[in-house]
Amino acid sequence: QIADKAVMMMNGHSPMPSWQQLLATLDDSFDSAKSAVLTRVDPTGASPVLGHLSRVLDYNVPHGKKTRGVTVLLAWAAFAKDRAIADVETACPAAWAVELLQASFLVHDDIMDGSQTRRGRPCWFRNDGVGLMAVNDGIFLDQALYALLSSAYSEHPQYSQLMDLFHSVTLTTCIGQALDMSLGVSGLTWSAYREMVCRKTAHYSFHLPVAAALLLRNRPELVDVAKPLLLRIGEYFQAQDDYLDFYGDPAETGKIGTDIQEAKCSWLALTALDRLRAAASAKPDGDASGGDNSPSPSEASSLLARFQDCYGQSEPDRVAAVGDIYRRLRLDAAYAEFEAAEFASIDASVEQLDSPELRLVCRTLLQLIHGRRK
């Protein structure tokens, strides 16, 4: 509802389609996008692999929140001369290309993390008869997006730039994933976290959808204008994901959190370390770490040692011990303070954008994710 109110803002133009209207348009176009991809695989429709690839697409692509895909349509519609008839169908192939990329990342991410569920269902590789074939299926999803872009936009003046954008963002995200997988407990630093988040999440989740729409609108000069703020929104989004991995309800998030077991460089882990180190180094009569609920120096030292011993371990008692530390430090309250302050700061930056269309897009995205629980 918040997102719909933002999307309907006037800003001197006719009303925008609502977020739900954009989502419905995207959903209605899935079969067309799927057909375009499978036709590129085999124009005759006779290949025995088509059934499997059709299942790959059906299972992995259209079932998420589709925030990234709808963002393409949102940005496309924002730059329409008449927003009420924005011809959003034109941008649907690009929107599904972003969703195909997302699906590719998730299939591979779940294999690497050994995850159990995704979007409330078993991860693709855990389905009967799939297993490690999912590695190839993830590659197919990645390559399918280029087939879709080619079928829809090969004559577009920004076609080359559009393809370069997807290639560049994919490479950036792969580097971010490598960071995420390799940091470990010894790599828990804020500088590593910010680089990892910027590369792994922010580029493909926020920069890519808006940049794709801007290119389709022949507004390439605005891509670099919007990018810094969109990346910042992406960092805010990842902090939310980190919070929800532990504090979220799996029935709502659709997945069981595993960041503790995997020693992920996360907002919660880094904040816990900051607070424990500050409290451990405080003078016995000091109050350096935050009031009556803060641990004493001796308790903080003990908790810090316990955290370092247990973080990244899969034994249930060690996972529970880290969770107990999070609760002892009241990281839920710390996150609430962070979320409110970061929202206000980003919102102020949105107001500084010269383009009213970009302001509308960025504010809609910010309000959409603020306070999310999945």
Automatic annotation (TrEMBL):
Pfam families: polyprenyl_synt. GO terms for cellular component: cytoplasm. The keyword Transferase applies. It comes from the Eukaryota. One of its GO terms (biological process) is farnesyl diphosphate biosynthetic process. Its cofactor is Mg(2+). Keywords: Magnesium, Metal-binding, Transferase. GO terms for molecular function: (2E,6E)-farnesyl diphosphate synthase activity; dimethylallyltranstransferase activity; metal ion binding. Belongs to the FPP/GGPP synthase family. This is Farnesyl pyrophosphate synthase. The lineage of its organism: Eukaryota, Metazoa, Spiralia, Lophotrochozoa, Platyhelminthes.
